[in-house]
Amino acid sequence: MIMRIFQVVTKPGKEEAFSRFFHETAIPLMRGTKGIVQVLPGAPRPDSPREFSFVMVWDSLESLKAFVGEDYDSPHVDPAEAELVESRSIRHYELVGG
């Protein structure tokens, strides 16, 4: 399984608008995506008020590629969030069973 960590820093002043997008669009979309085993959304904390994240567990690299394409190492952006986001990062790991 693949663990995908996607992090976003909003533009200053865009936190509330991005929060609406995050809760109303992004979280439901990811929870309904074929191949995703688990979605762990992360909202800002007082020490990082502009940072949002997703930890997603995918059943396979093939499922991830079916969703985002062959260029899975690049953060893909929904047009609705493009004007709200200052930076994005994405990392992938092999999930270690516990």
Automatic annotation (TrEMBL):
<protein>
    <recommendedName>
        <fullName>Antibiotic biosynthesis monooxygenase</fullName>
    </recommendedName>
</protein>
<dbReference type="InterPro" id="IPR011008">
    <property type="entry name" value="Dimeric_a/b-barrel"/>
</dbReference>
